[in-house]
Specification:
This protein is of the alpha+beta class. It has two domains: 148 residues, Transposase Inhibitor Protein From Tn5, Chain A, domain 1; 64 residues, no CATH class. The chain is 37% helix and 17% strand. The chain is built from seven helices and eight strands, in the order ααβαβββββββαααα. It has a six-stranded mixed beta sheet with strand order 1-2-8-7-6-5, sandwiched between helices. The two termini are 41 Å apart.
């Protein structure tokens, strides 16, 4: 994604085929969650014999391994040409495993937390005098955030939007998080909704963090255009090589169309893909008509 051009550029496309072992593990996990019996209450504290597992050294699942391999191949491809700092992923990757995966590639993760994520302020009180120092303070209430974390307030119609930014803690993450909370209030019904964005880069301001996550949706626009205009729904390839070539070709045409439209949109900002296709079709008809003439005319 180019922040300057405000659009995404497809670079690498590869088919993902899950193994039978992964499918079986996923089905077994889903079945176990549905049939999980209610566990009786136990005494507080760690069960006897259980050891702590360092959160910073989590094992990568096959899904993370595939993404890491593709990410490393991309970084090797553009090394020295396009410097990358942030890896933007959707809410499916808003957890510690994805953050650890991004750090292995020396990138900062930008993603979205679950709506019910339990966030905590860092504890700033006095030391109790015994045991380890307390890390977690009060839990974050998105509807009652302290005013010192408020960065921006806007009102559009009857929707009030407040943007907060704070370094917060999550018990599933080993490091502090740079969290931006976008809270919306309906002034008529007083209904509330919020979105929590995270980044590992504690120096990143709230505006570029929100902007980078919004730019991620341009990737979805390319898939929509590939389905509507470039035949990604129509190719009949079944072999791995054929599927990879067809998918890469259709999304490569996204970049070709952008290059062809760049000059036209300087004089016609509303030029669309349909206009580009009509223009190319017109050139084709003229060339075929000239070839059908008994004598070819002089070049024009």
């Amino acid at each position: 994604m180019s922040v300057q051009a405000r659009r995404a550029f497809p670079v690498r496309v590869e088919q993902v085929v899950r193994s039978e072992a992964e499918k079986a593990a996923s089905q077994a996990k889903a079945a176990a969650q549905q049939q999980k019996p209610s566990t009786p209450s136990r005494r507080p504290g760690r069960p006897k014999g259980r050891r702590s597992i360092p959160q910073a050294a989590v094992p990568l699942t096959p899904e993370w391994s595939r993404i890491t391999a593709r990410l490393d191949a991309l970084l090797k491809l553009i090394a020295g040409v396009i410097p990358l700092t942030y890896l933007v992923l959707d809410g499916h990757f808003g957890h510690h495993n994805a953050l650890h995966m991004a750090r292995q590639s020396h990138l900062h993760l930008i993603s979205k937390l679950r709506c019910d994520a339990a966030l905590y302020f860092p504890y700033a009180g006095p030391y109790a005098g015994r045991g380890p120092r307390r890390q977690y303070g009060s839990q974050v209430d998105d509807g009652n955030m302290p005013a010192k974390y408020l960065k921006e307030t806007t009102v559009e119609g009857h929707i009030q939007t407040r943007v907060y930014q704070a370094p917060l803690l999550h018990k599933a993450f080993a490091q502090p998080l740079n969290v931006v909370i976008i809270s919306k209030l309906n002034l008529r019904t007083h209904g509330r909704a919020h979105v929590s964005l995270l980044s590992r880069d504690l120096t990143l301001a709230y505006a570029p963090l929100v902007d980078d996550y919004r730019l991620r949706f341009h990737i979805e626009f390319h898939f929509r255009a590939a389905k509507q205009y470039r035949g990604v729904d129509d190719f009949m390839n079944v072999t791995p090589t054929g599927v990879t070539n067809a998918a890469n070709l259709t999304l490569f045409l996204v970049n070709v169309a952008y290059h062809l439209q760049a000059d036209v949109r300087q004089r016609d900002p509303d030029d669309s893909i349909l206009d580009l296709k009509a223009d190319c079709r017109g050139y084709t008809y003229v060339e075929e008509t000239i070839q059908m003439l008994p004598e070819k005319p002089e070049p024009v």
